[in-house]
Request: fold
Amino acid sequence: MTRLVVGSLAVLVALLVPLPTSSATPTVTPTYHVEVIVFRNAGSREELGGAPPLRGAGEPDSPTGGPLVARYVGPLPASAWQLAGARERLTKAGYRVLAHAAWIQTPSSWGSRIGLPLDALGIRVPGLSGQFLLERGSLLHLGMNLRFVAEGAGVSELSEIRRIRFNERQYFDHPGLGVIALVSPGSR
Reply:
């Protein structure tokens, strides 16, 4: 009889105590809306030798569980673009707009220096090559490695990464090449 009571009690306890759940809950990588304008000063005739180092890079964090790699999600609908006024002002001020694009992406891990190539973002401008980087650690960073080769005007390169805040225009400059960028949170 005692065995029957102990056995019944064990079954009752087993039914009342929840089973442990897996601690490996799937994490959802957030997406971000990125909009950029790449421009050149109409009078720029700069010649640079070699690619500059990525400015502001610092030491990469050691990511846990391997680095995340940025993933292009798709283009941002034109109705959501926010830099049209900036593009118009640049043109009126005599700058040559090389590209204006907007897309949705996930970030790479901070310090990975893994970006999305211009071609994958739909930016196809003769003479312009490189990538945009969006990295997330404890903070969000935006950067680029861009190179523009113009016949008779030399080579201009812009290579920089910096911490950014959501919905604030960022201006990356170099004597021959510039970028205005805006990053907004997407979905989680």
